[in-house]
């Protein structure tokens, strides 16, 4: 099992660092999965048990100048590692002015992801700062626990408002309640609501737009079976989980979507040119 990669381009390095910082805001520990053409950051806290789930996929060719990996065998040519997100993010932060960054799977008393940062120097030779990040090797028999989360047929799919605006609204609401209700319909309308014994506050967003419903389940529905476009689907979720997502974003998405399965789950999709992030927050009972 081998892995080594190198980033030389400053723009790619800064972009990769911002992605790693975003992941750190969402997950203390995560699974790092390498395939021949992609890198994945995965958090699987079992939505069914009340935990959030995250799936972030990067096209490695858009980030790395060199990328070589060999799995345990030709049939299972992948690598799954468990690591502390902050350790990885902290190592990359030292690379802001680096000439190059090398990332390699090593064994130094324990398996490590070694990040070697080549920094410019006044002398002819460069300075190398090395970070050894302990990782756990996830065996093949457990790989199925880290498959891409299955996406149910949602009741509503809607584009999100500007995320900075949404973050500002949710931050204010956080001081009043621990939970927030997100509701939306197929007419491009979304409401953020908090309700307590003493106060009820609602923020309305209109004309957000809805992506086309393209699931097989939806295409088989007759017009009579479908809910009216103005019908609201809603879910009450932990407000801190939502704020984690909104406050942790360090790369502006090209598109941001929200899917709601009524009273069960909210699914966020942030689409970028070279990577995508999915985040599942289960509804509170």
From TrEMBL:
It is found in: Nucleus. Belongs to the HUS1 family. Residues 209-231 are annotated as: Disordered. PANTHER family: CHECKPOINT PROTEIN (PTHR12900:SF0), MITOTIC AND DNA DAMAGE CHECKPOINT PROTEIN HUS1 (PTHR12900). SUPFAM superfamilies: DNA clamp (SSF55979). It comes from Phrynosoma platyrhinos (Desert horned lizard). Signal peptide: none annotated. The keyword Nucleus applies. This is Checkpoint protein. Keywords: Nucleus. Its main location: nucleus. Residues 215-228 have a biased composition (Basic and acidic residues).
């Amino acid at each position: 099992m081998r892995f080594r990669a190198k980033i030389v381009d400053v723009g790619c390095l800064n972009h990769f660092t911002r992605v790693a910082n975003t992941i750190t805001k969402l997950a203390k520990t995560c699974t790092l999965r390498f395939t021949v053409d992609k890198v994945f950051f995965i958090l699987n806290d079992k939505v069914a048990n009340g935990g959030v789930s995250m799936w972030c996929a990067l096209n490695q060719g858009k980030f790395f100048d060199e990328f070589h990996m060999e799995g345990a065998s030709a049939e299972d040519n992948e690598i799954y590692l468990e690591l502390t997100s902050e350790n990885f993010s902290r190592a990359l932060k030292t690379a802001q002015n680096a000439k190059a960054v090398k990332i390699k799977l090593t064994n130094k008393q324990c398996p490590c992801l070694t990040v070697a940062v080549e920094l410019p120097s006044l002398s002819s030779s460069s300075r190398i700062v090395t970070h050894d990040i302990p990782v756990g090797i996830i065996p093949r028999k457990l790989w199925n626990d880290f498959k891409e989360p299955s996406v149910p047929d949602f009741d509503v799919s809607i584009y999100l408002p500007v995320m900075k605006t949404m973050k500002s609204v949710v931050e204010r609401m956080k001081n009043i309640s621990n939970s927030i209700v997100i509701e939306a319909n197929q007419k491009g309308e979304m409401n953020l609501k908090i309700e307590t014994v003493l106060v009820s506050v609602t923020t309305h967003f209109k004309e957000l737009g809805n992506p086309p419903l393209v699931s097989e389940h939806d295409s088989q529905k007759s017009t009579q079976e479908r809910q009216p476009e103005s019908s609201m689907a809603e879910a009450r979720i932990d407000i801190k989980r939502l704020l984690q997502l909104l406050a942790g974003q360090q790369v502006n998405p090209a598109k941001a979507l929200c899917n709601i399965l009524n009273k069960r789950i909210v699914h966020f999709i942030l689409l970028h040119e070279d990577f995508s992030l999915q985040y599942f927050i289960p509804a509170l009972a």
